[in-house]
Amino acid sequence: MASHDENTDKSDIRILESSSFIFYKAYFSWKRMSDKVLEPAGLTHTQYVFLCVLQSLESKRQKPTQNDLARLTDSDVTMTSHVLRTLQKRGLIERKHIDGDERAKYPKLLLAGKQLIKKAEKIMDKFEQEYFSPINNNFDDFLQSLKDLTAGREAYQ
């Protein structure tokens, strides 16, 4: 007698063909692979994103708070603080309070952080070209679709 597992065809499991499951798998595939390629730089993809967003804001002469970074990246405030604390301990950023605003912390890139971003950007540029190569012909549409999915979704957050 065949076991239940032997008789279960993947096509019988509806979720395996659902858009939410395929998106879930694609995201975690991307996350695992991007974390792996960033290991030589000593960063996770999340840390890389925070450093790059901070660099972008600083290049526009903006002084973001940790809460600003959390909002811009759609990240949890506690997780944002944890990531920034880790980057601070590594000497990549500093976090300061501004007089009269003791609750808000203002992260700022240090030279070591700026240098690490340059190394990590090269790694990520190469990785992204390889990872997204199967959809090169439709990449702009893909990117626009992702933007459409993330726009105006505050009601669910």
List the helices and strands and how they pair.
Blueprint: H1 4-7, H2 19-38, H3 45-59, H4 66-73, H5 77-89, E1 93-98, E2 101-109, H6 111-131, H7 139-150
Antiparallel strand pairs: 1-2
Helix pairs in contact: 2-6, 3-6, 4-5
Low-confidence stretches: none
What is the tally of beta strands?
2
Strand order of the largest sheet: 1-2
Helix content: 55-70%
The average pLDDT score comes to: 87
What does this 3D model show about the protein?
The protein is mainly alpha-helical and 157 residues long. It is 59% helix and 10% strand. The protein contains seven helices and two strands. It has helices at 4-7, 19-38, 45-59, 66-73, 77-89, 111-131, 139-150, and strands spanning 93-98, 101-109. A two-stranded antiparallel ribbon has the order 1-2. Strand 1 and strand 2 form a beta hairpin. Helix 2 packs across helix 6 (111-131), helix 3 (45-59) crosses helix 6 and helix 4 packs across helix 5 (77-89). The longest helix is centred in the last third of the chain and has 21 residues, at 111-131. The protein is globular, with a radius of gyration of 20 Å.
